[in-house]
Amino acid sequence: MSGFIEGVRRNQTTLFPDCLDDFVAADSAVRVVDAFVERLDLRALGFEAEAATGRPGYQPTMLLNFFVYGYLNQLASSRRQEREAGRNVEVMWLTGRLAPDFMTVAGFRRDHGAAIQVARQEFVLLCAQIGMFAGASVAVDGSKFLAVNNRDRNFTPAKIEHRRKELEEAVARYLKQIESADRWAYDVAEGRVAHFEEKIAALEA
């Protein structure tokens, strides 16, 4: 129909392809993820080096980028991360258009759980330092109030250490939940593919 704004045809090719960097905003959080992981000493954290023999694997930098981005955007399942690698422009920018399958993503988390936990803690601290997390401002006038030392709002070195251990346990639980989500997704994935194929065939008919 004429008289409407028309998009580009899906099978149309261009002489000069678009630059992937143009699709990611300059203030996008994915750029912070990339800069953070790029400056980490992965060997010191415990990430394995490249294999001496056999088929080359994915770089730990890219896979850690993938994990941190998934953590930041609540992509817990490795299957969801696999889908995002094929349709999310920010993920394509972050991985260089590489698309590791869900087994590779899950295996990376399983083999480097302790190192990922340390990297995740450093990322949260960095986000707090550079102001990526929203904060609140409180203003008080010159009135006098009865002081109340709420034990939930005062901190001692012992309380801070206890809180740090709680955060470490929370990260460990998060990683276990991811593994559980991966196992559940693996059980239902094959049936879903067949179901969608039947639906498409019925629509075409």
Describe this structure in words.
- The protein is an all-alpha fold.
- It is built from eight helices and no strands.
- 59% of the residues lie in helices and 0% in strands.
- The radius of gyration is 23 Å and the shape is extended.
- The mean pLDDT is 78.
Q: How would you sum up this structure in a few lines?
A:
The protein has 205 residues and is mainly alpha-helical. Helices cover 59% and strands 0% of the residues. The longest helix is centred in the last third of the chain and has 48 residues, at 157-204.
How many beta-strand segments?
Answer: 0
Largest sheet composition: none
From the helix content, strand content and strand pairing, which structural class follows? mainly alpha
How many separate helices?
8
Order of helices and strands: HHHHHHHH
Overall shape: it is: extended
Please, what is the oligomeric state?
single chain
* Uncertain ranges: none
The overall pLDDT average reads 78
Task: Work out the radius of gyration.
Answer: 23 Å
- Strand fraction: under 5%
Residue share in helices? 55-70%
Distance between the termini: 25 Å
Key terms:
205 residues, mainly alpha, 59% helix
Helices and strands, with pairings:
Layout: H1 29-38, H2 42-45, H3 60-72, H4 78-87, H5 89-95, H6 102-111, H7 113-130, H8 157-204
